[in-house]
Amino acid sequence: MSEVPAPENARSAPPLDSPELYFNRDLSILAFNQRVLALADDQRVPLLERLRYLTIVSINLDEFFEVRMAGLLQRLNSAPAPWGRICLGPIVKSRRSRKRPMKSFPNNTDA
How far apart are CA 74 and CA 71, in angstroms? Predict the structure, then answer.
């Protein structure tokens, strides 16, 4: 059986250890909450629905900082470990995770 030649315009797939193939879980959670918060800030959404969105974001961020950030800080305070190219080290994750929620909240209190 012979191999089928690849098309001339096909590019090779990146290696499986390439960071661009993977999402960072913590930053993905924060991005989701930012999208939900944008719905809560949308004036076209009924008020009760907006309140529900705010509740979802509040619960999610509480859990995020109590569980995920606590785990990151615990790993940060433990013995140093080698961090691969795919995995962000706990220092970088904690810095990015702290900055992102603060950028998410609207500047006005009209909601």
Answer: 5
